[in-house]
């Protein structure tokens, strides 16, 4: 969460000092432009903002390219630069403009929280069974960062993990072979049949095994075309200059339509398979 607000603050600091020429470019939808318009900056203020933005960008780039600093040192220095930059920005702004800027920052923060909340819901819809694994991996990654491992330690841990995965596969294979020695031939046949039925079950075939859908080639082609068209239309909306809220709604409508069309293609394909003579 700290990183989220730090990144947001840096974005706001950079956006505040973007030079705007809305009359010539006709782009009133970008965050920096909307903010400057709300603040009603004078020409002198815009010039000073541009100078601050340029200086801030240069320092941030130098910090990013500094290989002598650790990641934690860079984050600390980044916060210092951001605080210095915001202090300089406040010297340029009037008290009223500073109040408007704070209000805008709070609003952007709430939007970021809502956006992250929607992402979380989408992740849950994609597969609840995967969520605990992803959460554990993310938490594990954060804990590993807190350890401040050296490069040598990271390399050794990676080697151990690779060795563990290899041995796990070998043990899994060995386990299956040992089980097959216990089963009778008839039991092995029944077990294989149970596995096939499990894969064909609608409750499992679509979730996590999309590449194994038992559909004809024509339906697979339709699914591919649907996805390509959806991605093209989505990209076009993302690159458009419409208002952010309208953009989000269009993308939401496109996504809903794409999912409905995809489900219909799969449903129709399965109907055809069910009616085929055995």
From TrEMBL:
It comes from the Bacteria. Keywords: Signal. Residues 1-22 form the signal peptide. Residues 100-133 have a biased composition (Basic and acidic residues). Residues 100-140 are annotated as: Disordered. This is Spy/CpxP family protein refolding chaperone. It comes from Dysgonomonas hofstadii.
